[in-house]
Structure prediction request, 727 residues.
Amino acid sequence: MANGLAIEAKGLFKSFDGKEAVRGIDLQVPEGSIYGILGPNGAGKTTTLRMLLGIIEPDAGRRTLLGHADPIQAAGIVGYLPEERGLYPAMHCRDAIAFMGALRGFPLDAGRRRAEILLRDNGLADYVAKPIKSLSKGMSQTVQLLGTIVHRPKLIVLDEPFSGLDAMNQGRLEHLIREEAAAGATVIFSTHVIAHAERLCERIAIIAGGRVRFEGSVAEARDRLRPQVRLRTRAADGSWRSSLPAAAAQQDGVWHFELPKAGIEPLLKALIDGGAGIEELSIERPGLHDAFVAIAGEEAARELAESEQADMGAAA
Amino acid sequence: MNNLLRSAWVIGRRDFIATVFSRTFILFLLAPLVIFGFSMAAGLSAGKAGREASRPTVAVIADGATVQALADARARLVAGTSERTIPALRPVEPTGQVEAQARRLLADEEAPLSAVVTGTIARPVVIAPEAADADLGNRLRLLIEEARRSAALEAAGIRTPPAAPQRVVTESAAGDLRSLRSGLAQASQMLIFMITLMLATLLLSNLVEEKSNKVIEVLAAAVPLDAIFLGKLIAMLFISVVGLATWAGMLGIAYLFVQTLQSWLVVPPFAPAVGWPAFVLLLILYYTTNYMLLGALFLGIGGQASNIREIQTLSMPITFLQLGVLLLAMNTVGSPATTLAWTAYIVPFSSPLSMVALAAEQPTLWPHFAALAWQALWVVLIIRLSAALFRRTVLKSGSRQDFWKMLTARG
Prediction:
């Protein structure tokens, strides 16, 4: 990990039955960062994560996980929450967490002790010695998440960790992710919810159609778009009109256009001199959503919105 | 390697605890008792009915002296062999035309007769369907000849006193030893076979649990697949050992109980060819390799199935496979050097069963080292193959394509 990267992937390819799921993905996840993989359902997020973890082998390309070319070699310092959650229903919460730790080489006794503490800290003190099957879906998801971090992994991989959680548990999870990152762990998670990526991640990769459309910081993604200007004037027309950018469009009496390269001042002067009568003028930094539309295209953005709705429908 | 064993231990430990400390395990422990009880009951009733149905009865339509002579001859022959060797005789009073009477008797379903003997010892007549000539006919001839001989000897005034040979008692006879040893060989094969048969469904359905509750993803991300398979196999091995120990304990108690009641029930003093200590060790080792070989195969096949229904469909051909292996191995008992026997030693699945028979019958030890190494090699191979197949067909969950669909799609 001389290069300071927890994960490095180059040119990952994977197809299932001739259908390409991942078409050449490059990723660089810096150590100690919170990294988001953003994309609609079916974009190839899970396949990418599974290849990174060595659950499946890529058809082409290579990846390094915490410096190991063979991901299973790093298993002891990696935690993974799969998209399809799974625990043995008859196991007690404490044992389930300790078992997941033991799979990663964490001693069973220490795992049990740490499981009790983790359960207590996460409001599940009453369920330490209760079987998983007696838990609600959200609770068992929390238990699995605790099992993912019980062995204090250096890299935590979470596949759609927020899906299926209510607002309170989502908040709790965000807190936990920040805590683990603060303690020095690298956290990488996939999501189709822009807000989660925007709130938590230092860096993101936008994946659509099996390709990385963007990789970098959230700020960089936003900087892909010029700030947006909204302008409403009293006068409908005048000499000032010629100073507006050619691409400016009027909608319900409001002009929308990108901030010109020269800045707002020349335009402002022209508006005042031309007596346009400024009623409303705002310069907005584009959100990640707009950046996503610009980067991945309208179609991917629509798929993302559909994924989000499907998830909300499933949670309801 | 170390990591593989450690991971296998974690997986195996979980499986072992989850199985042994479950309520259903008691049912598993009781299963042999139930099977044993049922087969005893079935054996008892079927045996009684079977013995009566299978012994042919022959009607004798003749004068008193002939009937008596035949009955005496039968008594002598039966005394030297068994009740079942010579057909039972039923004297019938002649009523008018003998052949017509015989036909009536043979047609009577209430009587059930296989043949009718009439005439005299000097001029006997057998009235029976053609089929009676082969087996029943021979025995009837033997019976009539015995009656004739004894009548002839009596007529000549020659008395033949019953033979009472002088006895010299030796240690043991090689001939007896051979039959005892082949008995032991067969019993050992059956023991190993039965237990593996009982475990087959458990092994087949083993991975369905992880697949249906999605734990497989957690396992596959954390440990090598080989370790999952190995851990599961070893867990099942120890589960079977718990079962075996329980059953052996029950048998031991039953044996002691019977011993106290009937002190005559003693096992004949003999030893298998390699001696008891080596034999017991080899029996345990071959049980393990047999279990591991078939277990790895079943685990691998079962891993490809996605639900219990597929497992149920699979278990029938699997049982036949096991039976085939048993038959192949049984062929080696008593004839250890034939081509078929060599096939049984070399085919990995029949190797443990046939080698345990060899241990009972032949004293050479080195073939066992070779066989055990050969079998262990195959266990490793099958585990690796199963894991590779599992990775290829099951873990690529994105495509939802499994092995069976792949097969049917190509077919």
Notes: Confidence is low (pLDDT under 50) at residues 397-411 of chain B. The first strand of chain B starts at residue 57 and ends at 61.
